[in-house]
Design brief:
With about 250 residues, the protein is α/β, with parallel strands linked by helices. The chain has a single domain, classed as Divalent-metal-dependent TIM barrel enzymes (TIM Barrel), CATH 3.20.20.150. The chain is built from 10 helices and 8 strands. Strands 6-5-4-3-2-1-8-7 form an 8-stranded parallel sheet. Helix 6 links the parallel strand 5 and strand 6. Helix 2 runs parallel beside helix 3. The longest helix has 19 residues. It is globular and about 45 Å long.
Amino acid sequence: MPKPRIAVQLFSVRHEMAKNLPGTLKAVRDIGYDGVEFYGGYIRPDILLKALKSAKLKIVGWHTPFANIQPGLIEATIAYNKLIGNNSMVVPALPPDCTLNKAAWLKAADVIQTAAKRLAEDGMYTGYHNHHTEFSPVEGQIPWDIIGGATDKTVALQMDTGNCMRGKGDPLALMKKYAGRGRTIHLKPFSKSKEFATMIGSDDTDWQALKKLGDTEAEWYIVEYECEKLYKPLEGIKLCYDALKKLGF
């Protein structure tokens, strides 16, 4: 399969984007990124498409609120994403009532699986993105395994490497366990001693091992940098991009 390209999760530059969407996308492209993943509330399609076209960036996904893939809103979600040419609607987190116990996690997994079936009819897909809580056991099982085990391969499991490590999970082992489900992978620097206040290449991630796994199944590597105390957002995502290129990504 083709080598995965590198995108950025725009949450990393949310402050800049709120002030100037076209300018921020252009700055992202100037760094070298080929694609962007959006998050949260929708942007007027004509404004969004104009900014993407001007910056020559591809939209690679949208972190879509859990409510938006449920029966009452999923048709509107599909219609919007068709307009902007996006086929990936990954759920970035669940509301508290979906994480109370194993039964709640299973119920959420069922909603995601049902949405995946509907989205597949239009050549789209959904999935789930982890934070650190997905690796704290619930009734003897980690929620990442609850979600993974209760859904099939039509549901992407978007591993966030840094979040997983923060939760004391092993991203490489879990990527192997759920091989074939990592259509996109979030690359987030993480250090056991400094947490997110570190940089790709000097953190605790085995980037070469991760690349070996990711190259076999991922369509996109998506950088997410969130330590504004260390570097300003645009500087941070540039340093991440440069470090990945040095590592052969």
